[in-house]
Amino acid sequence: MKNVLILNAHHYYPFSEGKLNAALIEKADAFFQAKGYQTRVVNTQDEIDVETELENHQ
Fold first, then answer.
1. Is residue 53 part of a domain?
2. 3-38 tens-digit pLDDT
3. What is the residue-wise DSSP string for 29-46?
């Protein structure tokens, strides 16, 4: 199975809520899933466990 990692690197600001970015990520996720890829979306504003992420790339 092919895998795709999509990074959402948007950081919220009152003048930039990230709605366009979120919509584009949603479209990309749907596109790759329709092509048979396994996808995972990571938001950089969320808490990230470095050890887990390193294990995901081995």
1. no
2. 999 999 888 888 888 889 999 999 999 999 999 999
3. HHHHHHTT-EEEEEETTS
Residue 34 counted as domain residue:
yes
User: 11: part of which helix (H) or strand (E)?
Assistant: none
Query: How many Å apart are CA 55 and CA 13, to the nearest integer?
Result: 32
Rounded Cα distance between 2 and 13, Å, is 34
List Cβ neighbours of 25 (8 Å cut-off, separation of 6 or more).
6, 8, 41
Q: Tell me the whole-structure pTM to 2 decimals.
A: 0.78
Structural domain range at position 14 = 1-38
Q: How many CB atoms lie within 10 A of CB 49?
A: 9
The number of distinct structural domains making up the chain is 1
